[in-house]
Amino acid sequence: MTSAQVELRLLALLLDYPDEQLLGGRDEVEQVLAQLDPSPRRDAMAGFVSWLYAADRLAVEQEYVASFDFSKRTTLHLSFYTYGDRRQRGRAMLALKQRFAAAGLPLVAGALPDYLPAVIEFAALAPGDEGDEVLTQLRAGIEVVRAGLHEAGSPYAQLLDALVAGLPKLGRQERAALERLAAEGPPTELVGLEPFAPPEFMPKPVSGGGCGAGQASRRPGAIRQ
C-alpha cells in the first residue's frame, strides 16, 4: 500500500465516529502517522490527533456530534449539497453505490454511499483513477463541509484541510460555483422537508437499547472488507 493510500485510510478512520476502537488506539494511530512522509496532509492529521488524544472522551464525542449531526452545512453525507430534489439524489447515490460494487468494494448493509469516510476509504482502495474521480464528483460537498467546520471552529476542520491538501487546486469557475452553493444552499426548496436520503437508502431504525446523541451515525458508510 502506498503512502497516499495509508494517508487516506487513516483520514477515513479519524473522520468516523470516535468510538472505543479509535479512542483506544492512540499508539497505533501515532505509529502510522510517524511512518508517513512529511506533507501538509500528514501535518493537518497530526494536529487533529494531538487534540483527539488530549481531550476528554466525552468532550470528543460531543464535539463530533456538534460538528456533524446538527448542521446541514456540515453533514458528512455529501450528495445533500448537490441534489436538492429527492429523486435526483436517489439516482446519484444508486450510481455511486454501483460504482463501489463494480470496484469490488461493496458497502455494508444499510450504508449510504455518499458518507465521507466511506468515500475516502473507497478513494484509498479503488483501482486506477476511480477514487480520484469520486472525490472530484463530490468535491462541492467536501468544500462546503470544510468551510462550515472552520466557521464553527471545529477541530475536525483539520481533517477536511488534510483531505483537500491532496486534491487538485480549484479553478476560478469552480471556486465561484462553490461560493454560490455555500451562500445559497442546495438548489431546491424540498431540502430540509425530506429525509437526507430516499427510503430505499435509509437504514432501518435501531430497536432496543438507549442510544445517545449521534449513535445513529456510527460507521454508516463502512466498506465491507
Describe the structure.
By secondary structure, the protein is an all-alpha fold. It has a single domain (3-196), classed as Orthogonal Bundle (TorD-like). It contains eleven helices and no strands. The protein has helices spanning 3-15, 20-23, 26-35, 40-54, 57-68, 86-102, 116-125, 130-137, 139-152, 157-165, 172-184. The longest helix is centred in the middle third of the chain and has 17 residues, at 86-102. The radius of gyration is 17 Å and the shape is globular.
Topology, element by element:
Layout: H1 3-15, H2 20-23, H3 26-35, H4 40-54, H5 57-68, H6 86-102, H7 116-125, H8 130-137, H9 139-152, H10 157-165, H11 172-184
Helix pairs in contact: 1-7, 3-4, 4-10, 7-8, 9-10, 9-11
Low-pLDDT parts are 189-220
Distance, first to last CA:
15 Å
Give the proportion of residues in helices.
55-70%
Question: What's the number of extended β-strand segments?
Answer: 0
Radius of gyration: 17 Å
> Which percent band covers the strand fraction?
under 5%
Shape field: globular
Tally the helices.
11
Stated plainly, the CATH topology is called TorD-like
Mean pLDDT: 80
> Which class do the helix and strand fractions yield?
mainly alpha
Count of spatially separate domains: 1
Provide the CATH top-level class.
Mainly Alpha
Helix and strand run? HHHHHHHHHHH
